[in-house]
Sequence to fold (298 residues):
Amino acid sequence: MFTSIKRSCKLGWKNFKRSGGLSLVAIVVLVATGFLATSLLLAREVSEDVIEDIEASADISVYFNLATPEEQILEIGEDLENEFNLLGVDYVSRHEALESFRARHGDNEVLMEALDEVGNRFAATLNIKAGEVEDYRAISDYVRSNHSGIVDEIDFYRRKEAIESIFDITSRVQKSLLVTGVILALVSVFIVFGTIRLSIYSLNEEIKIMKLVGASNWFMRGSFIVQGFILGLIASVISLLLLFALAALMSQGYNPFGMDLDLHIFGNLSFILILQFSVGIGLSVLSSLIAVRRYLKV
Fold:
């Protein structure tokens, strides 16, 4: 049994080398497919990190009319905490807003003189941080509908649009990668299928001779499946090497997007290894099985 497997592997390697250019084309397409599959995973991981960072820093500020009493603003803050699931509501008084402005621009004498002339024109503010980004619209609408007479401005919509645009771009990128990946996977199957089919045709006379001297059907089929396995294995290894090279390059400073790609790769290394070898070897062996079943007459 072991001898038969060994001979089948040797014949599969021989078939692989005989295929030459077709094997190279198949490997290139399989590399692209595996690399794209991993890119889809990493794109999802990176986009989730970006969105989490935006959500963590997101909040809205409600600016009140200058004549609004502090007690009323604090009551609105308590009302919002009771009405919504908030992470926090911070009250910034007019005096605190003024002192904060002075601390930031105290070295600008012209600005300070103008401020002394007009007096404190800063509004009291409630800085609201919600548990979910989706809650900000509801909070904004609630404040406007219930306290429109004393609210001067709510700086919600600009931030919300930025977050929604991130979601939209991320969704488009992931869909594009997915469609491209499916197309490449189909192309990979057809190319490996064609490679194995041509190998079967080119070895037609040799197959007949081996059958005459007692070669088993399993032995003949196994050699072509081994050929497909070799194609997938080489493609998977090359794809992984390219991925690690890219991560190393970005970690050395060649990183225009500011992504910690190496952290994402090594943080998901087990899954990436499984994904790479499943795509490369899986597609290749599947194509080989289909070609053998259809064209190998033993």
